[in-house]
Amino acid sequence: MRLCGWVLRSKTIGRVVIVEVSGGDVRPYVLVGKQDLNPELYNTLSTLPLGSAVCFEGEPAREQKSKRGTEFEVKSIKVYAEPIEPLPVELVGKVPSLLETRIKYRWLLLRNPVEKAIFRVRQSIVQAAREYLVNNGFMEIHTPKIVAAGAEGGATLFKVQYFEREAYLSQSPQLYKQILISSIPRVFEITPYFRAEKFNTVRHLNESWGIDVEQGFIESMEDVMNTLENLVAYIINYVRDKNKEELETLDVELPRVTTPFKRLKFEEAVDILRSNGVEVPEGEDLSDQAERELGKIMSEKGNDLYFIVGFPWQSTGFYYMREEDGHHTRKFDLDFRGLEIASGGQREHRYDKLVEALRLKGLDPANFSFYLEAFKYGMPPHGGFGLGIERLMMQMLGLNNIREAVLFVRDRTRLVP
Amino acid sequence: MRLCGWVLRSKTIGRVVIVEVSGGDVRPYVLVGKQDLNPELYNTLSTLPLGSAVCFEGEPAREQKSKRGTEFEVKSIKVYAEPIEPLPVELVGKVPSLLETRIKYRWLLLRNPVEKAIFRVRQSIVQAAREYLVNNGFMEIHTPKIVAAGAEGGATLFKVQYFEREAYLSQSPQLYKQILISSIPRVFEITPYFRAEKFNTVRHLNESWGIDVEQGFIESMEDVMNTLENLVAYIINYVRDKNKEELETLDVELPRVTTPFKRLKFEEAVDILRSNGVEVPEGEDLSDQAERELGKIMSEKGNDLYFIVGFPWQSTGFYYMREEDGHHTRKFDLDFRGLEIASGGQREHRYDKLVEALRLKGLDPANFSFYLEAFKYGMPPHGGFGLGIERLMMQMLGLNNIREAVLFVRDRTRLVP
């Protein structure tokens, strides 16, 4: 077989040279050259400059002695490129502790098994999600990212100059996936989200990716929560089974997830927090701080993953269905150890109520005419959610900063690389 | 089993009522109610308003008499929503001939088997592509869509206000996928492309989707062309095998594709065109018109899919590798019956030559510093391509306008829905 990668580390012990090559797999290929057996190969391996791009022909060694990676019996090796400057960062061992360095040199640090493992898990998350959704009858769609109006109002929209007109970047496929529920019973999209939030925290990105799902013909919000909890369990258990080497490299133990997840009413969450001495101002959404505290309390009770349901209407988007009491909505969050990783709920599918909701939220129904139109022709009860890929990764892998979960960071100050 | 959808058509013949329901499958579910056998069901089915959203419990009938879809023995049926206004478009039979209507009401027309078939094929294309690429060692990535500089210069960039700074929407992941080849041997992304081209033709969109691939450690441009032709053959044969009902509904016959595809040098293409009386101005790229003519000539020779290779340097992006003659490049197009569906080639991976190429193209290397940096540390020879999903769909399904291949159209004038 032919394998390719970059010389990560090289060591000569007497008449034996050991070269580690970082390729497509998370663990390096380990090439061993013995002067006595093959002097030519020994010489080539001994003189490979650090960081060179090489391919070799070989087979996995019968005896696997190295713990660092898979050992190969090498037949031939060829150099494709050599560094023209010394490597600007160390690529073996621990990844740099300075976040700035990690973000700047991510494209190079990916040669490090730790950095690479993170993004191989990311790929698995996306694969697992698609597998689960397609197997459950969801159709994959692509909706526009340049839009005329945002689902959540103007404050967090990035402006785009679209020829003569002013347009925006899509905050989420919310409006589009909903109108498709007037003709396709179940849809999903793997999509970038663009949010001009000015936060500069460890849990916010201005360009992030999500798994966005919408499901029609539901009986209640529970149907949507079932889909979400089963999806998340499927993803985590998939990574647990298929990414053993990655998890080992990252020193992460991922317990098998079972469903159902605990459901906590919003008021219950507030009560739990208050009885644990956390202040929660009346009529407000939970702060990041309160979410974290709740996470600790829930984890102690054995609930790493739990829903918070029935958010008050004043803190939600216009499209969530309100309960009869006019105060509660069918909106839920899914929290993972104190971090909201998904948000969703049952939508208002009744035309009149939807127009009323827009007005109550101070939005002009005229700006949503194509969206409203779709509610006139047999729009079934429906609901859905957006699951943040980077946030899920943070909690699965114990990353300290969401910027570790994305190849190229877009935040309050970063536009390059 | 429980199935859901919308009442598409209903017909009563004496004591038998036949209702077609458009659900998740391309062909409708056919529900038959006989007054003599089950008067209650007969009554319910007879009075279902057109366009209603319904779910039913039932099993496929032992005897399948209907040619329209799959017949079901219905145990129970429930109405989830009814239209509050008459349907604005006809949802059975042929799709509306007016493109404007199709674009405006796509979210509703998807109840029509013809419209739905198109987007089920689209889903299959994306699934097949991922399957092929993952099985061949390509890692799925997500690169930023908000960028500081475009791969192809400023003329076709949409401007975005990114907080205090001016930024752009990504024309393609070109620069990002390339720099990742300094640490991951093979990558791909399914991604939106944003191009502010002012064309208003049947083959251009301003927001489109593509399958973007980059491959390191290549011996020549041929390695990249092999990946592309095998990918396209895999996709087409996958749809041919898995979407028989969709193809039948669309009245499309898709011949099995075999590789390799014919390779045509750019000069050969020009010669063929000229000897067939088509004018091709010296030193220019092929016009859309010339491409179409060439398509006809090639199809007559049995080549529906063919490469054009070695485009002249003056008409290509700065990142293509130039041949020693300084005139030809290792850029290719893949054409499908006269339409360019993919474009790619071998890249310049040598730092000095790349800086020179930027200067020759009148671009300032300072604007590409993060990109150039990645070429200093063992960048192997590499190449890749972008394959346009909508253009591939057009040619596979014989669509007349690229706007038929995308759920929501973004073109020179359309920003809604």
From TrEMBL, chains A, B:
EC number(s) given by UniProt: 6.1.1.12
Binding site for Mg(2+) 2: E340, S343
The entry's keywords: Aminoacyl-tRNA synthetase, ATP-binding, Cytoplasm, Ligase, Magnesium, Metal-binding, Nucleotide-binding, Protein biosynthesis
Coiled coil: none
Residues involved in Mg(2+) 3 binding: E340
Residues the entry annotates as binding ATP: R195, A196, E197, R203, H204, L205, E340, G388, I389, E390, R391
EC top class named in words: ligase
CDD domains: AsxRS_core (cd00776)
Gene3D superfamilies cross-referenced by the UniProt entry: Bira Bifunctional Protein, Domain 2, Nucleic acid-binding proteins
Site (Important for tRNA discrimination): K67
Cofactor: Mg(2+)
GO biological process entries: aspartyl-tRNA aminoacylation
Annotated L-aspartate binding sites: E152, R195, S343, R347
Family label: Belongs to the class-II aminoacyl-tRNA synthetase family. Type 2 subfamily.
Subunit structure: Homodimer.
Protein name in the entry: Aspartate--tRNA(Asp) ligase
Gene assigned in the entry: aspS
